Design the sequence.
């Protein structure tokens, strides 16, 4: 019975397994050789921040501000566009796009500050 249960674990390797011993007798473990970058927490935080920004864009901005911010920063899976491209698409000046973008970002920054 013991051998049958051990057979299941035969192909498994632990990162804390010793793979070699150095000249001083210290064990060299697999985790010392394999680079492990645990980004799970930062990935979760980035995802939460992204959800918050999307929600605030919908809640806090006017339709025009929302459209400009969405186009400018490529929200919703779109490619980010330049102010010049947005101005041409909307039939307004690039400086007007810049002013609307600035005002929208200030609103978002204030809303984020209130929640944080």
Sequence:
């Amino acid at each position: 019975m013991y051998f049958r249960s051990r057979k299941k674990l035969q192909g498994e390797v632990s990162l804390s397994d010793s793979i070699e011993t150095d000249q001083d007798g210290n064990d060299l473990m697999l985790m010392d050789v394999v680079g492990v970058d645990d980004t799970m927490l930062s990935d979760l935080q980035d995802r939460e921040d992204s959800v918050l920004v999307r929600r605030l864009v919908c809640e806090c901005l006017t339709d025009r501000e929302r459209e400009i911010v969405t186009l400018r920063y490529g929200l919703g899976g779109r490619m980010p566009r330049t102010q010049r491209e947005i101005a041409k698409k909307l039939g307004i000046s690039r400086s007007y796009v810049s002013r609307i973008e600035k005002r929208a970002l200030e609103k978002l920054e204030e809303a984020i500050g209130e929640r944080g």
Residues 94-115 form the longest helix (22 residues).
